[in-house]
Batch of 3 targets.
Target 1
Amino acid sequence: MSAHAIVIGAGANELVAAHYLARAGRKVTVIEAYTMHDAEGWIPPPIVRDLGLDGAGLKVGRADPWLTIPLPDGGRLALPQDVMQSAEAIRRVSPHDAERWPAFCARMASLARMLQTLYEAPPPDPTRGGLRERARQARLGLRLRGIGRKEIAELFRVLPMSVADWLDDWFETDALKGALGAAGIRHLRHGPRAGGTAFALLHRHVGEPPGVFRPATSNVMDALAKLPGIEIRRGVEISGIEVRAGTVAGVTLASGEHIAAPVVVSGLDPRRTLLDLVDPGWLDPELVRALRNIRSRGVSARVDVTVARAPGFAVLAVAPSLDFLERASDDAKYGRISREPYLEVRAGAPTVDGRYRLNVHVQYAPYALAEGDWDAARRSALGDMVVHSLAAHLSGGDDAVTERSVLTPRDLEGTAGWPEGQPHHAELALDQFLWMRPVPALARYRTPVAGLFLCGPAMHPGGGVGVAGAHATREILRR
Amino acid sequence: MVKKCDAIVIGGGHNGLVCAAYLARAGKRALVLERREVLGGAALSEEVFPGFTFSVFSYVVSLLRPEIIRDLDLPRHGLHILPLESTLTPLPDGGHIAQWNDHDQNRHELARHSLRDAEAYDELGRLLHQMARAVRPLLGMLPPDPASLRVRDLASLARLGGHLRGLAPEHFHALHKLLTMSSADYLDEWFETEALKATKSASGIIGTMLGPRSPGTAYVLLHHYMGELDGVFRAWGFAKGGNGSVSAAIAAAARRFGAEIRTGAPVANVIVKGHRAVGVALESGEEIQAKVVVSGADPRRTFLDLLGPGQLPDDFVAAIRRFRFRGASGKVNLALAELPRFAGLPDAGPHLRGAISISPSVDYLERAYDEAKYGEFSRRPYLDIVIPSLLDPAMAPPGKHVMSIFAQYAPYALNGGWTDARREAFGDAVIDTITEYAPNLKGAILHRQVITPADIERTVGLTEGNIFQGELTLQQMFFFRPVPAWARYATPVPGLYQCGAGTHPGGGVMGASGRLAAQAILGEKA
Amino acid sequence: MLKTTPFHPRTAALCASYAWRRWAGYVVASSYGLSHEHEYHAIRSAAALLDISPLCKYLVRGKDAARLLDRVVPRDVAHAEVGRVLYTPWCDAAGKVLDDGTIARLDDALFRMTSADPGLRWLEDNALGLDVEIEDATDSIAALALQGPASRAILQEVCSKDLGALKYFRTTAAELRGAPVTISRTGYTGDLGFEVWVDAPDALAVWDALIQAGTPYGIAPAGMLALDMARIEAGLMLIDVDYISARKALIPQQTSTPFELGLGWAVNLDKENFVGKRALVEAAKRGPAWRFMGVEIEWESLEELYADVKLAPQVPAAVWRTSVPLYTDGDQVGYATSGGWSPLLKRYIALAHIESSHAAPGTRLEMEVTVEHRRMHATACVVRRPFFDPERKRA
């Protein structure tokens, strides 16, 4: 059996890439490889338009209030989407912070817009002086110039900062800083005092409305899977990518089946793709070193719980202060699970029997434990701790939770293909950003093996639904 | 009586003296006003105990710019830099790992711990040498203002862009990594020996309230190699007579060029008339007029104390207020009756002539940082130790020694504040730490002096005791230092300039800020 | 501290000159006698015994040992039969030479690789995904070179194996006075010669046996100065002297492809893949910009320069290792990197990098020579390497 293009993985990036390739006239087979996870965040309008996602029933949801923050006095601070309304909500805890909130939201929006400009195209390559590259950079430069050089300088100043310093410059309320700062450390092993976490906060803000610092949710995975034009083979395990004379020849499945194709696009992480599935003999040793040095330290677990009563929030952040987050990260630094982890709870729609599913992000639960490994006992202890911590925030206390399931970083590596449990495949850090993502030699979605491309979350921009997939296709079709 | 001169330099620290020397060399009548009776600011030698002389606050000469050594002919004015040949890291298990200047000796020593690391050391050394070559011009460059549309800034920015574009791609990428990574992560890519990683990464945290795992700390690794590039000048080492002799040499050069230097002359404020700095008022009431006033004090003191926020635009004041200092280190100076004896090493071996680094693992450094994050000093701090009397016997009476210990973390914002008792407790922690590796140390101590960031602030006037006049983090470097658009030594008040380490490139006993400030004042192209 | 080799108890006792030098972190004799002349002539007329233990040695074993080496070096390792020794350079991904050395196939799945610089990290990093074990045997294996026309006869005295059957660039396991050794017919002198590889604890016994057996044949322990002259006569390059490893080069101009070092014969572009192949395919298409050649300084021209200052011609007493410019019509077209007076050939010879357009044998260039403090130009003729290539080397 043969196909014109094989796409490995069935995440948003892979499906977007598959549909773009199909639209360009390629026959496309998608090999699912891992179970899919919901995609969250920004969906660039061109992708919606090009693929006709609206026609496929795409619905983007954004809770209002978008975040609920428990306060030390037992109350809650709920932040509506409207900036002025959220400022009013903040005024009850701090008039100072309420004063600054609109300016903060505007500044964040302006900084995130600049990142968005960079994210809407494949990464620039400042080391190449070719005519096309120069023209591209000039275009990009002009668009950025429209934003103003002062703002660009401000972006350069803010990116390397710690989210703690950045927020300390604006606000005084611990609860507000903790909840905002949490977005700067999500899926990073660092705490909020580490440099570059201000960048992570901005990165997550790209594509979201001003004043909203949590990603939108959508049914985009369903919509992408429903779109016609591609073949998706589910439940298939891949065992190798074949290379002949430096050119990709196809893939081999665990069943022994070969599928020949002149183009293979992998959404799996670059290390798995190039070091496990391809014979590394095709790679230069320097590239092998660089691949091994990609940082992908998973630090989060996911706990799904069912509760009997309505939780009373859409998204709840348990991150009472920046110091709380910092202390939680201290544990992870030495390979321990945080004794008091940062939790972020997302409530789903009521189930048919009237109960509620809550999805809990638990950080820090490091993939690499200093002592022991992720076994059933640790998994269960983590579940207990989360349920116990949640009790304070749910009506019904310790008995609120009726069911739970725990996915440790190791589970997530196995089921979702996240290396070390890291959903971004390569951590979101300034040294793995733009032309450095995931490593300079691969930043343009191409690999040293002709015909083999990368399109996963490890690729620029490392955020947004399907953006890397769309950029990768552009590179593939340029050949 | 009102005195007049071309330029007043506030503060007789090494940058102020360098600035005055360059101004005087260009024929300007320059007057340095130092608050204390001694010159040198933090680069100071003092006979703290009879017969025992210390570089009280600083400890090594790191990156004193060779052009300054040349231009001011400092060796003729008494500067003699003695090289440090090695860095020894004693280990808790009684072992040690050392880095030596001699290539073969270094290789054998590292190979004892890891053959791979011994090889990687040379390869990393080559890369950082190349990187240092690429970055060094920035140290001697007036930083452009990226937001400015003035021709001068655009041209300067284009030069910078061209310079960076001229790098080979692999070097451009390596530079990107150095600027954005944590020193621990960066070294993880190269080495497997924990103590080697820790000791090298420690250079990235010196003087900064960050741990070695915090991004932004890798860049400082380059500084060591920049020192090596200027190898013939032996810019990395220990100044004979202590760091005060660096200041003394610069002061002598400045005087030789005609600068006047007054000590015991504390400046109360900068006098502004018609939005222009026209002179200074001393605490004595004396007023001195000058065409330009150059402040070697740190940005907060310069703008909020000596000038006053009322003279400045609001956003500038806001930027100064958010400029971060966070002094993180202290010093312990010991007068010793005998040399420390480290387990498994000869009693008075050559290892004592270099630096001794207490940095057995990255986790050790991180734990030290953890305590400081929450407002405590490290009970087991990172220490960088030198014994200057082995290189310069005149520092101590015959047969006796001085030990100079840089100790981190000692946070300025200590819970409950620094008191005499807390200072001594910190001193005990430092001595207990060394004693774990050199058990005879405690018994060898004749005198000790403990200096906290609060002491540094009080004595030398460095805000929050930060030895670099402001944290050297990416967001406070180059054209952001100290305030974006005001990184070219001028200030919003015409006639007022800055020349301290709070400006680009800042840090260490380097003198570059003073030199560049003088060039900016003289309108020279840099 | 510097390391000493397992032979140091013997070499130290013999080193009447007290002239030592560093080699890869070890201390070895520059010459044993007060002059190295006798040691040099022993190489060419009798036999010389040289301590070459500082060479880096790696044992590569396992199912994929040949695959690893084939990945690292441009020569064809997989097809080398057991007992074969290959001299080869190896390159980085840009096709620039990192090092050169030998690979001996001791068994189907066992190789001994030698290199000038430590290369464990490079080997290991190339071994990703391969079933192979790499052991650094630099300290555990001692090595002697026995070189010269009498070397076979001497070695045969103490060795049971028929060495007449051991062909050029072949190796065999043997016993030498009871000590297990491997003997390879290799060397760095361009003469008939052998290298003996022995576990460090047996090193002194092997030294003593060879000295004892060799004494009737005129064996002499020889130091680095004698070797340096011999290897130049043999046209063999030396890392850090005649070329700079791409691992140490600070600027691209300091690096060389194998083609530019005259090692194109060792690059097999038909192999499926090896490190640097892509770059070397391109380099082969372009052709090398530089050639690594011999030059002979013409005596008459040298004599004239000295005659002008009323002196007899002078030649260097030992090999020099500095960069010396080569010109044609005043333009620099190359540089010699090591050279000296060949006592055997009675010629002043040097190894040189020359721009390809001026590198044809027979081309007459000018080489800078310093005559009585003044820099002059002497005529130097481009010649093929080696300068000296006796039949006995291969016979």
Target 2
Amino acid sequence: MSFETVIGLEVHVELKTRSKIFCSCSNEFGAEPNTNVCPICSGFPGMLPVLNQQVVEYAIKAGLALNCEIADYCKFDRKNYFYPDLPKAYQISQYDLPVCKKGYLDIEFGGTKKRIGITRAHLEEDAGKLVHQGSISSTPFSLVDLNRSGVPLLEIVSEPDLRSSQEARAYMEKIRSVLLFAGVSDCKMEEGSLRCDANVSVRPSGQATLGTRTEIKNLNSFKAMEKAIDFEVQRQIEAIEDGEEIIQETRTWEEDKQITRSMRSKEEAHDYRYFPEPDLPPLRISRKWVNDIIQSMPEMPEQARERIMDEHGLSAYDASLLTLTPDFLGFFDECTRYYHDGKIISNWMMGEMSKLLNQKNLDITQCKINPVHLVDMLKLMDEGRISGKMAKEVFEAMFETGSPPEAIIKEKGMEQISDEDTLEKIILEVIAKNPRVVEDYRNGKKKATGFLVGQVMQATRGQANPALVNQILARKLNS
Amino acid sequence: MELYELTLHELQQVLDKQEASATEIISSVLGRINKVEDKIQAFITLDEEGAMAQAQQCDARGSFSGLDGIPYGLKDIICSQGMRTTCASRMLENFVPFYDATVAARLKAAGGILVGKLNLDEFAMGSSTEQSAFFPTRNPWDLTRVPGGSSGGSAAAVAAGEIPFALGTDTGGSIRQPASYCGVVGLKPTYGRVSRYGVVAYASSLDQVGVFSREVGDCAQVLNLIAGKDSLDSTSVELEKPDFTSFLRDDIKGLKIAYPREYFQEGIETEIKNTVKQALLKYEELGAIVEEVSLPHSEYALPAYYLVAPAEASANLARFDGVRYGLRDFQAENVIEMFSSTRAEGFGDEVKMRIMLGTYALSSGYYDAYYLKALKVRRLIKNDFDKVFADYDLIVAPTTPTTAFKLGEQVGDPLTLYMNDILTVPVNMAGLPGMSIPCGFLEGLPVGLQLIGRAFDEGTLIRAAYAFEQNTDYHQAKPDIGGDII
Amino acid sequence: MTISFEEVEHVALLARLQLKEKEKEKYAEHMGSILQYVDKLQQLDTEGVEPLDHILPVFNIFREDQVKPAPKREEILANAPLVEAGQYKVPKII
């Protein structure tokens, strides 16, 4: 029997405001435990929330980027549950009237386009962090850090439109891309500012009704998400094939064991008892407010992709890679201000640059190469002062040091030899030293030039201008 | 006359004319407290040293304005920086906030001297102050009787001359009912008029901070200080704030007063009804137009309240989990057990009961039948009031169905106790301002007259209350706290 | 309206209240009588009535996105029953 996988994602994005959603504490990542906290985000008695306007602005921006309808009226609700990292024992969230609903994102996977529906996107506050001494099941104590408590979150709920872990990944990457372009979040999975829970079910191919789903939590990287979904799909298929029932439950991804594990227990039976948050008046979002935000919306990745394909004749593939993040695109755009051939810039960025970034596990904001330096390097190539091969070496040095290409060439004494007299002298020497090869050439073995060029390059430690060498050599051999 | 017997504005005059110093005032008040407190038991925390030190500083400055040198007390649910704030609960027995509630900060900024924190029903849940986890407070008019609640400590302290004014909170009648039982003035402002920041929440959509004093004028003065928009409370309203003392004029000619027939029906003691009717005659005599009206959904206010308030309370009190402050059961082996046993130990019966009720009303499958239904009924109750206020300036009614009852008399069946709130709860459900002023005595126990106004029209309440006060002498009666505790 | 022993236990679990057997009986009885009383609301036809979830006609109350310095950690942690390394210490989760 063959099965179809059905996946819906609940993606949590931290919004990059300066302060938290309901208090004036800093929304900065990585501070000492409990130093970005106050009585409000620590849930002290008598404390009240006051909504950060920027959070709503960002939510509307994100909603527009996700092609959502923006509500003209929305409110907050309390979601009640006990957990040591949830200071009020309720999370202020939005239940029946979210700020955004009915959106979509188009993803491309395996060469085909697909539209993924977005049910809703709502605002809520993040909880704190529990630090376990050892593993969660063996530790006698846990520690609570509330720095993250009250960080603004947008929860984006997709329709169950995804059919594989790869599609899920493509969708996540697309969310990351549009929200980065909208400038509302830094979307760093490793810092938890982009997280997701996956609802996964399988059904026999052709069956119309959905299978029983499980919810997988704790997916902290793209890789973990893919692996966890794949594992869970396989587990469910095997269970069904063994005649077992799938239980609707929450499961957690255990990175060390590479399995999903049930989190179900009697105590976890949850009933969130939502009700309207009396401490926060509702929101009325006027058309004017939304229109003002539309006016201020930056270019979105799809627009950028069209633009650079149009302006620089790039392939759809290259253009979509260049528009994965606004920083990557920004680098490209900066280069094209000073250099005419976008295709060449793109080749260097997609090739050498991506390779080096991946090797060092860096993102482009951490790259030391200045766009102007890359352009300078390309111009040196055009002028024939360095060869393509030398350029790669120069590029690597630029990547390491951030120095301009001129300085690197000088330092390494690697300027290309393009002086005809110098080259002619060397070529004549090489011809003189290799009479048999010259003989072969003249007898019709045209490939013999390759050896002679190699000899010239060796003699010049690779600095000879190869085009000129070929030219002069041909002239000399044929004379 | 002793200094402690003086009202707020009388004390201000005394200070102004340099007839007494702040130190003398505080000494007199502390002397009074020491004399009667073992009978009244209004204070959970008393800060004699702090109060004296502040009075000395005040005298050293030499000039007096605002509340400079004036002692006051806070219901112990209002957070006070550096002073224990217990909510009369074991849960917070040792909780010392490092922040002031906005109302506390405003009184402090005006120069007032915080003498101590006043008893209440645990987390403001009750109508007798018997639900305090520490001890019950007694009614100064009869020490065998309750002062009412939940702000019983505030009402009793003001009535007993321990303090000239105090702040309380009113969620379903917790200022007006004890004011009525203790024969003092009690004002619950419009929801949104006074900041709730730093006031430990019972039911957030109903809670409001208000004033106890011996005279209406003092109440207006304190309201001037505590009212107004607070950027820390999203539900405090940006409105031009009138000078509430400008309403202290003895003129109510042409004022249109309504009395709702539903507030004079069975369940209300006949003698109370008669006393209130006398007050209505007084108003007519003073030139007001007094007519009967109907608030048809009145009887549904109390059942709706007992869904809305516990539901909100179940969430508001969930934060008391033993992690960040308050009591903790250190024996528990895991977190769920720690939560459950800490809360079982820290909360009293009535609090647990209301948390259970509220949790049930919100739980899956019951929300529509209970909580949502109650919110719809709340709308109907508000509509009733809106209709009446289209034609009338003020509603007048009894504050309570009876006078103060005896300690222990209403412990047991919660419903009997809840009935105390039947005349005050609708006002909270509609978010309106309400006031109770003394309007007579029955067998030596005070009777309260309830005034209900339009939203944000505390001015008319003050005006009508002042006119009544100027033409009667009930507010001048003082309890004789001689009897022994029984 | 009556409420069963099991319902009381379920609600107590949701509310994180450890109840003794005696208490469960008492709460079952008291909750039952209050619920019976509030059932009075069911007599009212509220068809089409808009629930009143916010009493004030107030909307869009915001603060500006400005950071204010946090209080000292010692102040925040001063009331905590158990602290380690600047964090609240709690017993194991499971």
Target 3
Amino acid sequence: MATIRFTSHLVRHRPAPAVMAAGATVAEVLAQGFEGDDLLRSYVLDEQGRVRKHVNIYLDGALIHDRLRLSDPVGPASEIYVLQALSGG
Amino acid sequence: MATLWVGSRKGLFRYDDTPGGWVSPGKPAFIAGPVTAVLDDPRDGSLYVSLYHGHFGCKLHRSDDRGKSWLELPAPAYPKSDDPDAAALEFIWTFAAGGEDEPGTIWAGTLPGGLFKSTEKGATWALNEPLWHVPGREKWFGAGYDHAGIHSILVDPRDSRHIVIGVSIGGVWITRDGGESWALGGHGLRSDYVPPGQEQDPNLQDPHLIAAAPTDPDRIWCQHHNGIFVSDDGGMNWHESTGVKPSAFGFAVAPHPTDRNRAFFAPAQKDECRLPVDARLVVTETGDGGATFRSLSNGLPQDDSYDLIYRHALVADGSGRLLAMGSTTGGLWVSGNEGADWQLLSAHLPPIACLAFAP
């Protein structure tokens, strides 16, 4: 299972502990990670499921390529970091 | 005791008018959170606040205990689509309470141009599809922002199904059936930022704010990008006030709560400057339906003022005695005598987006 970790800036607004989740893509892993907390999901993704403009998602140390559909493939021991982008002020 | 809510770039402040003067009790709510709209619902005392977090998007909170505690609610969401450019909520620009006969109904005007309705005190929201798909909306465009936005929602106290909205840029739209169908008003408004021949197109108008006279909802005031306009038929037709000094440009208008012929404005030098004319901050008032205006300045800075008053940052209370005004450079003033004299409450708040007196 992959591990999702959230920036402390997000934790200021919502409880967002690190979570283990399964899935073949970033979209699938995040969907499981956000299960039961649609509000937390809304801080990272917009209502169309796209990564928010000023949020960055790193997969095993690199920015994900597909910010629209989050189709980047995830390995069984991958680490996903959800961070605020400095572009957002 | 009057209470004033101050929505700022760095949180929601509260000021109370106590026997000892205006005081701000405690710390602001949502510290560091940019507030874009606030509603103090006169029907049940609920408070609604929208935030625009630079990184994490638009968020909605409600308080049922006058701001002691807050509940986060799902923000309005645009319909799901596979289009990579599908609309998504940018921020909530304004709230409006539904009518007295609609407890729990709240309207929200948003960017990129959607009008949303909640019948459950913000717990769920639905996009008003008839307006979203109304012929002509494709001509709307952004003013100061990337996309058009709804900043004014006027619910007729005589008929909750009669609603008038203001769109920057998209004009004035009117429904008489609760949002099932919409008609384009704004005839007589004038824009000078479109090609020759289109100046009168009501769908290309930039009403910075529209606000109805509480005692006569058919009397609507408009601080437009190109001047001050008045409607006496609920927003369908308008006539322009001319010769307004020091400037007919501005964003805000606050109708007097009991006198349909009185309204207050916060003028600025148009268009690229957007500063007080000659760096002197004044409020202009008309007492004769927009025929003539006078400047009110006692207590306001008369030199080196760079305060711009945003559209939701000049408000009157229900009595007409109190006025409040907040600026982009963090100045906050109140008047206890209908604008004749102003008192500075703070010169160093964060930039102020919106004000609301408790009903």
